[in-house]
Hints:
With 133 residues, the protein is of the alpha+beta class.
Amino acid sequence: MKPMKIVHPRLRPVRHLRAWAALFALCLATGLLATDGFAKRQPREVRQPDLKILSVALTPAPYAPAAGPMEIAVEVELPQALQGDTLLEVTSLITSPSKRSLRFLADRQPIKQIVTPVPSGAATNSDAKPRAN
């Protein structure tokens, strides 16, 4: 027959303390590692292109669906220095008056094909920039 151990009900054996200490350490480590993932990231600085929209023209104005296709012409002032393989992308979101119909249009063209010469009045100005229609 084994001798009987008498343990006070408020005292716990040492192995329970080790389990609680290990669980506490695991929770603490998880909490410290998880805070890096939830930290707010700094927004990256977005450099705006050196473009300027000079004019937007819609034909026919006012437009009626029975009148045929609607044409959108955008005139853009381009930066002085351009790379040879630069593309110009024009995107438009067209909505109906009732807001039930949406149409997203996009057009990409190489800059070389669409650059027009600078108007003669602006040719004397040294900072005249090329334009794209």
